[in-house]
Amino acid sequence: MSLIALTREVSPAFANCELTHLPRVSIDVSKAAAQHRGYERALEELRCSVKRIGAGPDMPDSVFIEDAAVVLDEIAIITRPGAASRRGETVGVAAALGSYRPLLRIEPPGTMDGGDVMLAGRSLFVGCSSRTSIAAVEQMRAMVAPFGYSLQPVSVRGCLHLKSAVTALDDHTLLINAEWARPDEFPGFDLVPVDPREAPGANIVRANGGLVYSAAYPRTLEALQRRGYSVTTVDVSEIAKAEGAVTCCSLLFKG
Questions:
Q1: What residues contact residue 213 under an 8 Å CB cut-off, 6+ apart?
Q2: Is residue 162 a contact partner of residue 156, using CB atoms and an 8 Å limit?
Q3: Number of separate domains in the chain
Q4: Which domain holds residue 146?
Q5: CB-CB contact of 113 with 65 (8 Å)
Q6: Helix H or strand E encompassing 241
Q7: Which of 9, 33, 120, 153 might form a disulfide with 168, Cβ 3.0–4.6 angstroms?
Q8: Catalytic residue among 17, 48, 159, 248
Q9: CA–CA separation, 9 vs 158, rounded Å?
Q10: For residues 201 and 240, what is the distance between their CA atoms, to the nearest angstrom?
Q11: CA-closest candidate to residue 51, choices 113, 93, 4
């Protein structure tokens, strides 16, 4: 069964993105689009089938497709993004996912960004951030319970989303910035710390036994390679100016 990577093109209005923790700086939209294509090529090299959908000027943040849905083996959950300006993004994502999975939806008043949801094995961790509410967490808990997932809300501090702070290297190992996520909230997992000089370096994509990672964090990369991980690096410097990272730019699921 192939791994599908659903992506969304960089909007021409990308420079007008939402920002929470970073100051607004000039973004080269053409360069961001070229970096995004490089990211897609890295996924293809890891044997992912990339399916890209379009984005108009009314959706500056829509390249961050991860926030619009959570895709599990059994279902896809269409989120209700915490930023009201992003809620229209879910329509196109739902249309794209509908042929692959039954669709469930986070309903008002709940809000959830997919970047706050991390899956490791059968464990789901959901970050209680400025974008994701407890009401949405409880909705998701009811949705996933019939399929045997455990779900645990966890803390997020100092960053936008949970997966800014911690991501899965494999089903048993997490890459973590302990300043932004609490290690004691992930019992039973082997925790690999980011280099303290590379605070945003805990975000990594896992695909078909390989990893895709930003080239901006060479010290953490070296530590991962010493552990035997196969890591492909990509330049996402323009995308990072919009508080984006590598997981944000795709939805990965079995076809």
A1: 204, 205, 221, 224, 231, 232, 233, 234, 246
A2: yes
A3: 1
A4: 3-254
A5: no
A6: none
A7: 120
A8: 248
A9: 28
A10: 11
A11: 4
Catalytic, 36? Answer no
Rounded to two decimals, the pTM is: 0.96
Strands (E), 113-250: 117-120, 123-128, 150-155, 166-170, 173-176, 190-193, 204-207, 210-214, 231-234
Give residue 115's pLDDT: 98
Q: Is 161 a catalytic residue?
A: yes
CATH of the domain at 187: 3.75.10.10
Q: H helices of 11-81, where?
A: 29-45
179-201 average pLDDT score = 98
Between CA 62 and CA 22 the distance in angstroms is 18
**pLDDT average, residue stretch 48-73:** 96
State the Cα–Cα distance between residues 180 and 158, nearest whole angstrom: 6
Among the listed residues 17, 48, 159, 161, the single catalytic one is: 161
pLDDT digits (tens, 9 = 90+) for 65-76: 999 999 999 999
CB atoms within 10 A of CB 206: 20
